[in-house]
Amino acid sequence: MAFIIRRFYSSVIEKTVLISRSTDVFENLALEHWYYRHSDFTNKSMLLLWVNSNCVVIGRHQNPWLEVNFDPTIDLRIARRNSGGGTVFHDNENLNMTFFTNRDIYNRKQNLELIVETLKNEWNVVTEINKREDIVIDNMYKISGTASKLGRPNAYHHCTLLVNCNREFMSNLLRKHEKNIETNATVSVTSDVLNLTQINNKVCINRLMTAVGLQYLKTVGNTTTINQGFNYVTPNEQTFPGFNEIKNEMESWEWIYGRTPKFNITVKCNEKSVVLSVKNGIIENFTTACNILEP
Fold this sequence. Notes:
alpha+beta, 17 strands, five-stranded antiparallel β-sheet, six-stranded mixed β-sheet, 295 residues
């Protein structure tokens, strides 16, 4: 006889909105992972709001050499996150949101609907959720990308929201060029993007944080909410023991580049094509039309 065991949750859910004081991508990604690893979300859910200074963030299973147009004249930080999905550009006019829950009550669609409703109520900006679960305007222009990490017992869904980011800079960094790379890594899908300020110039980061946070704290479904309000957090080792270890790993070469799935890249050398085989970010061997040579 088979038995089905279900986990029962209290009908009372404690909700909290946290705002990170940091604009450092590695600190914010480390903070996000710390909460995922150490928190108990059995009868609690949490929304973390954060803003980064200029950076590019690739998905866990992506190839940075394929996704980013490297420019040695630009001091740009590149980070790899723990969730899947495609590459995104962050600056101080892009709002990041992370919704934490227990895995059993994870609901990405509900989070996106919350954002759509907030934009409509506060600024009369009409958006919709497409099949890829991006938030778009006119079924064409993307204003928010989404990704998630589903574990046990915790899960999170995080997404971006373009307020007034530098679209030209973003386009130059992420525009697809032929790079002669063969890979099984996740490849980003190019989309036309739009800033919220292009629809309504009264939208701003601070008010958006407040509006999304207040909407999040409202009672949803059949649960009763204990509203813990808004709190600011500063990512550091003193407040979050083990934080530095996570941060150091996330900003290491081994994580950002060494975790790249194996790939081949074809380059021209003395009018001949040479195929480089790269594993863990390091060239293993290269081939010419005639033979295989060890480096």
